[in-house]
Amino acid sequence: MTEPVAPQEQGGFSGLGGFYERAGGVIVPIAAAAVAFLIGGLVVLITGHNPLTAYQAIFEGTGFNWPYRLLTGQDRSEAARDLQQTLVVATPLILTALAVAFAFRCGLFNIGGQGQYWLGFIGALLIGTHLHGLNRPMHVAVGILAGIVFGAFWGGIAGLLRATVGAHEVITTIMLNWIAIFGGQYLFELNGPLQGPIASLPRSEIIDDSAKLWSVWGDFQPLHAGIFIALAALVIYYVVLNRTTLGFEVRAVGFNPEAARYGGMPVRRSYFLALAISGGFAGLAGAVNVLGFKYSVDTSDFGSQVGFTGIAVALLGRNKAIGIFFASLLFAGLQTGTSTRQLDPDVFDPALATDLATMIQALVIFFVGAELLILYVWRARRYVGIRPRAREEPAL
Amino acid sequence: MSEASLLELKGIVKRFPGIVANDHVDFDLRRGEVHALLGENGAGKSTLMNVLYGLYHPDEGEIRVKGKAVSIHSPRDAIDLGIGMVHQHFMLIPVMTVAENIVLATEPTRAGILLDYDAAVARVEQIARTFKFVVDPRARVENIGVGQQQRVEILKALYRGADVLILDEPTAVLTPQEAKELFAILRTLTREGMSVVFISHKLNEVLGIADRITVLRRGKKIDTLPREGATSETLARLMVGREVLLRVEKKPAEPGEPLLRVAGLTVRDNRGLEAVRDVSFEVRTGEIVGLAGVDGNGQTELIDALTGLRKPAAGRIRVGDEDIAGANARHALDAGEGHIPEDRQLRGLVLEFSLAENLALHDYRHQPDSRFGWLFPRRLFNSARSLLREFDVRGGQPQTPASALSGGNQQKLVVAREVSRDPRVLVAAQPTRGLDVGAIEFVHQRLVEERDEGRAVLLVSLELDEILSLSDRILVIYEGRIVGEYGPDVSDEELGIAMTGGARKDAA
Lengths: 396, 508
Prior knowledge:
The complex is a heterodimer. Helices cover 69% and strands 1% of the residues of chain A. Chain A has helices at 12-46, 51-62, 66-72, 77-105, 113-130, 136-164, 169-188, 226-243, 245-255, 257-262, 267-294, 306-316, 321-337, 350-381; strands spanning 215-217, 223-224. In chain A, strands 1-2 form a two-stranded antiparallel ribbon. In chain A, helix 4 packs parallel to helix 8 (226-243), helix 4 (77-105) packs across helix 12 (306-316) and helix 5 (113-130) crosses helix 11. Chain A is globular. Residues 1-21 and 381-396 of chain A have low confidence and may be disordered. Chain B folds into two domains: 1-82 and 189-244, 3-Layer(aba) Sandwich (Rossmann fold), CATH 3.40.50.300; 266-499, P-loop containing nucleotide triphosphate hydrolases (Rossmann fold), CATH 3.40.50. Chain B has helices at 45-52, 75-80, 98-104, 117-130, 146-159, 176-191, 203-209, 232-240, 299-306, 329-334, 344-348, 355-359, 377-390, 407-420, 437-452, 464-470, 492-499; strands at 5-16, 19-30, 34-38, 60-65, 68-70, 83-86, 164-168, 195-200, 212-217, 220-226, 258-268, 274-284, 287-292, 314-319, 322-323, 337-340, 370-371, 374-375, 425-429, 456-461, 473-478, 481-486. Chains A and B meet through helix 1, helix 9 and helix 10 of A and strand 2, helix 1, helix 10, helix 11 and strand 18 of B.
């Protein structure tokens, strides 16, 4: 053909949508967060406080002002402690978000991060408490590995059910969450099979020192090496998805399973592997938490929401490695910045602040989710009264 | 234009971000005529008619109906002006009856709460009589054929008082027989004083039905000409902007050994019914075998089975010496099959993937695309770049998402992938569906080249013209069975009769 391409062939909705997708990829999450903070500020105002000072106090509580203080040479010991705390919280969030994101790229919705987290936690805990006499790198490595394997096993169950009998992963992972939570409580409760040495405490043994992750920064509740594991996991996530044939298959299946099948890809195996790998990420979150700073588990710990917050982090981070990194910092910062320890009650009541943090989190998710809704409505509006014609025609 | 014009569009401009879909287009419609709007996909035909029907508001230009300037903001306004539009995909409610569907359209503006069903039926029957339609107002829409459904859509517009009918690619979903019936209906309508705008990119149809023809190309009106004196060649040149080969030029086939051998194949559809029944045939190297049939006679299931996407209930499928029946798609691919799928967007492409990734959809597992599970995106890009050039895929770079391409270029992308894998057997299902003449020419030439290089090509198509112009042998499938085999010079009448089961009268 010698004829130049008709201009229409490059435009239409797909072109516009493409632009929107590229710009929206960064703009929308940031805008969502901004609006959420704005509304949060209004609420603070209604409670009779100054939102600016409240936000400033929360911000200082996160320790994110540490680089500023470093540059200006001010006293930064408190900021350092706060930042250490925030990063310790962000570490498992990165990993549980990856557990959601990886499955999502395969078209699966893994709600089971919480259960997979507990499996990994318990797996690493057992290595820490029941395997003795290893040197420290080996003990840590085996503990980490156990966390991954246990988590992958839990995710793999849902994957196997999806691949073989087609049981929907949303249902199975939610059920597996409760099995993990109640099963875990049972193990460590009073007279439970794995209860620790203190008969009156529903708590596990404490892991050997040789199984503990190294501290890398600070003395009081220091930042542990788990942050490097989480950062490495972000890189691995990106590389596996974009640089391996497995990732190619996972993405193809996630976008269009029928085309993947046509392409000769093992679609059902991809479902299984994606959920198992997702479970591995969540299990790793459990492992770094127990080996990094928890060292043991109390039955009251099983109310943790870290797996569920991971869903929000993945959503805000748009299932991208870099997005998840920043989203996890935001969510971790909200958590530490509003904690009782960090926030001065005279500026803003920490009890209120915790609710504010929850509210802002919810608003962020709402707006990121609403963006999809807005896009959908906008798209649908163009078709009011007209059903999409032959799909190969640009919808002019 | 003249006083006789019922409706005039003057200088219509409609812009979308980055493009001008309609660039100062004039169009007029006279009472009692069929005016065809001809153009390639994306030429702006539908946009222009959507402007007229109130779905888009023009950026510039004027619409005059019966001499009065009007402004049409919604389909409601258009309907009030007597303009009705039948879209390619029908908007009928399957579980309701014909009469209910027709009446439903005007339901919102009527007072009463209860529907007077008998009155509705009577009214529908009366309109149907006036325009000599054969429909059963009490039949449920889900139980009637596509041709009938289209008639219901037309009746719906007439019921609302339309005297201008816009038909958007009305024959795309019809069999040749149904298309003939539609044309008879259109002639009756115009005799009764109705006017019809007939949107199409098929030359034969336009020449068969239109009184006048307006050709659009890239948003601009190229010409309006009467049917008398117009030929396929002139229209194709106006449409594409250059000379187009409408006839496929090919040498006589030199078939060799049987390469694809199908024996006693029975395939069930998704409901578990036998869609393909005891089918046997062979395709030899160096020949194109056309499989003709009306949509829904087992072609889809047959293609799925041949390409490893569906397990046959019985029978054998062999590529060379390898039995691939009941295997998976990968096995069929490895055995040397290429498959241009029926629906490129459903199956042929991952629209979110880049062009390079789509080109690697089968071979990503092998060198040089990957090694030991490690993918080399740069190599994907490089091989994509040369393939895009070789197959003249326009509108994107290797990293462009496939969704950004037009339908024709998407199809070329699929053809590029399947042909470049150097398959021994090529199963081409509807390879030119939705394409315009330029792209069709390309795909057809490519299929003939593949044949000449000694591949066995099975062409499955609903377009009789395509089957007739490409095939060296023609098989006809009807209700899951091969009911006839013909040489390349069979008449389309004969094929049409075989496709509809020989003695069956009503194709609808």
